[in-house]
């Protein structure tokens, strides 16, 4: 019963993604690089087009009809994102260029003003560079100390080690919700509760969870959460920062200029209230509106339904991958229902380099990712220079996985023949 319902999801949505209906190198495209970026449904593309064709104007600054329409659509998108992640207030959503900018906003506006020499920032070894490099820069400028949580035997977040690292000196815990390499889903609610007992703030990198799981920031009780639009069926060039209202209000602006001001004098300025204080200059208007369309699309399908279908796909993917003896899989294994991890698999295949695997699979029309996935420290921890990664989304099918597995076996056999 469940499988029948879940299989209808991909059948329902495939026609909404025209990019999937094409051939690559003479083969039907199998797109399994969704952790890098998702494809966009027609509704999102149409939202971009509609803005430029029918009400292209700057927001907040004009009383004419086109500006009013643009402002209503732009601010309407903020309402949609706030509802999507269950924020308590719409002004807790700040539009940014991407999740990287959102983390940098917190690092500069909060980190550089609140952290002092000897204060501690706890990260994990699995963090994306976007949630690592900004804190390195803050630590260098403030004298704060970085501490890192390692991995368990099953290559998951070591909660016991985290509890041994945290102290009264800890001012920030910044952790990924779902690893883009290991696929583990970290216990961010428990991590946050522990951090708050020590008076530390909590930032969650939710780039790999917001597109796939129901998210409730009030239940998580995080101080900040970031996500990228392009991974959740939205366009590139738009992301968002969620922050608790009082905390955002206390933070100074990140960038100065137009739009983020209340009054400007020659020698000083006063700043706008939330969220505009953090949205200097002309924003990515079309992209924000299209992100709102993406949120509508995902909400219409239902995040619980998306998660359930992806769990089924994940179970099937790992069932097939584990039958290939040359593969080394990274991260925890899913349970029989595909739960317990994100819908992606990073792996190596003996002496065959991940880039070679990816290039040969591309010749068969299969798109996967290869490299360090912006997690170089994690790959050093795993003692591999690069991994191949297949990542799923709700428009993928069991047939996509079958084609991938067939092409992967043929590719490994090809290189085995070359190596004698």
From TrEMBL:
It catalyses: (sulfur carrier)-H + L-cysteine = (sulfur carrier)-SH + L-alanine. Residues 30-404 form the Aminotransferase class V domain. CDD domains: SufS_like (cd06453). Coiled coil: none annotated. GO terms for biological process: cysteine metabolic process. Its EC number is 2.8.1.7. Its cofactor is pyridoxal 5'-phosphate. Pfam families: Aminotran_5. One of its GO terms (molecular function) is pyridoxal phosphate binding. InterPro entries: Aminotrans_V_dom, Cys_dSase_SufS, Cysteine_dSase, PyrdxlP-dep_Trfase, PyrdxlP-dep_Trfase_major, PyrdxlP-dep_Trfase_small. Keywords: Pyridoxal phosphate, Transferase. It is an enzyme of class 2 (transferase). Gene3D superfamilies: Aspartate Aminotransferase, domain 1, Type I PLP-dependent aspartate aminotransferase-like (Major domain). Signal peptide: none annotated. Belongs to the class-V pyridoxal-phosphate-dependent aminotransferase family. Csd subfamily. This is cysteine desulfurase. It comes from Petrachloros mirabilis ULC683.
